[in-house]
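This part of the workshop introduces the protein records we will be handling. A record pairs a protein's sequence with a compact description of its fold. Backbone structure tokens are a discrete shorthand for how the chain folds in space. The question running through the whole workshop is how a given chain folds. The record below serves as our worked example for the rest of this section.
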Amino acid sequence: MTHLNTALSLAAHGVPPLPLRVGKVPFGNCSDCAKNVCGGRPNMKTPGPCACPNPCHGWAAATTDPNVINSPTWARAWREAAGVAYHPGGAGLTVVDLDNAEGMAWARASLPATRTVPTTRGEHWLYRGAMQGANGVRPGVDIKSTMAYARWLGPGTRPMAALPDAVRALTVREPAPVRPVSVSVPSLAGGGQCPHRTPIYLDRGIAMAEKRITEARGAVHATVYRTFLAVLSTHGRCGCLTETHTARLFTAAQAKGETVRHCTEAWTNALTTLGLTHG
């Protein structure tokens, strides 16, 4: 069976193929799309048509449309193709690419049995279900699914199992540790007490500010700035804020993904807006 026939057969079964050139890599972008001067594909999360009819943009060229696969613009690629690849995520699949003996030993000990395809150096384990692809998730283990391609090496053997949580967990990154901060706070009149409210008022205000940051669903940086501005507008002139209070706000912001630099910039900008100075 020719590479073109293989691709058409895959497409007929809902698996989006693309041609591979020598070196097991996709064909490069054409001159009109070189270095993505065309802007790339409009939605790189799934395969989709580009204004260019050539098999450009790597994995995103994969398609199940037989008219595209068999088109004159793809004919040259098929004539020069050294193999066929497919986009696993586009077919609702995930490929656990095991490149060496260590990777295979881990899979056999840690993952449920599923469809297996032998490769040059190891095995592909196929699961039903798509996820974000990632390389080097473990020694000798890559994940090929959404936004990735895998070589077509045959249908494999054994029934295909559902994508297990153990595979999904491989791409979950531990959150970055929250760094302790030391920032300047206004040191004005008031001797550390809030003359117009009780200390409980300040504690409640800080708690509400933390809650506002924590519950932000978007525009986190803007929310952090507005929250800092609100706290400083109420307590920035009376001298009752301490570094402990500010550290609580920074910690809440960092837990939402803000860096120490971003927190410091937002705090400084709020001070400047209110005409407060570091003392």
